[in-house]
Design a protein that fits this description.
8-stranded antiparallel beta barrel; 4-stranded antiparallel beta sheet; mainly beta; disordered N terminus; signal; 2 helices; 16 strands; single chain; Lipocalin; Immunoglobulin-like
Length: about 260
């Protein structure tokens, strides 16, 4: 009898040892808190039809960010002063849990009753729909308007490594470019003063001192490079625009562009 009990104890111990060796699998499956139709986006304007806008994603359990055309906000709510009259579409990009989604909301802006950052008026004029035209600030031999500069930082934008414009300017040296907010952020590039323009769009980021040109139209003087169309704003006033390219693909240096209103 004692022998049987000992055998049972040995068997029970072996079972415990083997069961302890079995892996513990914790299967965590992502589940969706709702579907795309259930994601609620809300837009509020400080005044009826006004251009100070707050957009919110108010559904619980959703994470994501807003693309509000002027930039992105890594939050569920963002307030901004929008510079373009008419109907504008803003996009929320988020996760339901197991899948990503995008959803949009339209906002009708009928009046620019909240003043924009001064940079907007300097770039496109007080008449934002009519816009403003810029040309290279050429003032004769030796003038600086399109030149090689140190790469890496806008702090060296006005340090001249090679005054290329004095001998070897771009093909559009006598062209022009136009910015306006007539229903959209419109950008037009003219190869010469009388040429038919190519049209694109632009993004002005006063906070980060960036000007980005998008679409088919290229920045005046883009022969210096910059495939992504992004420039650092060194100076932007009513009568002067200085842009800096941190890394020219063409020359592997910095590059500086100086413009004045037409």
């Amino acid at each position: 009898m004692k022998i049987n009990k000992i055998i049972y104890l040995i068997l029970a111990s072996c079972m415990l040892v083997f069961s302890a060796c079995d892996p513990i699998v914790d299967e965590a499956h992502l589940t969706d808190s709702t579907d795309v139709a259930g994601v609620q986006l809300v837009a509020k304007q400080s005044t009826p039809g006004g251009n100070k806008v707050t957009i919110s994603m108010v559904s619980p359990g959703i994470t994501g960010y807003w693309d509000y055309n002027l930039g992105t906000a890594l939050t569920n709510e963002v307030t901004f002063v929008y510079p373009i009259p008419g109907k504008s579409t803003f996009t929320y990009v988020g996760s339901l849990g197991s899948q990503f989604f995008t959803k949009t909301i339209d906002v009708q802006i009928d009046q620019l009753d909240t003043r924009l950052d001064q940079d907007w008026y300097d770039l496109v004029s007080e008449d934002t729909s009519a816009g403003k035209t810029w040309v290279f600030d050429q003032a004769g031999a030796g003038s600086l308007w399109w030149f090689m500069s140190p790469p890496g930082s806008a702090d060296g934008a006005m340090s001249v490594w090679w005054n290329a414009g004095d001998c070897c300017g771009p093909s559009d040296a006598n062209g022009k470019m136009h910015f306006d907010l007539d229903g959209a952020a419109n950008f037009y590039h003219y190869e010469t003063a009388a040429a038919t323009p190519s049209k694109g769009s632009f993004v002005l980021d006063p906070t980060n001192k960036k000007l980005i040109v998008k679409g088919a139209a290229k920045m005046l003087g883009s022969a210096a490079g910059n495939a992504n169309g992004e420039y650092t704003i060194v100076t932007l006033t009513e009568d002067k625009l200085v842009l800096y390219l941190t890394n020219s693909e063409t020359y592997a240096t910095g590059w500086t562009f100086i413009f004045r209103p037409e």
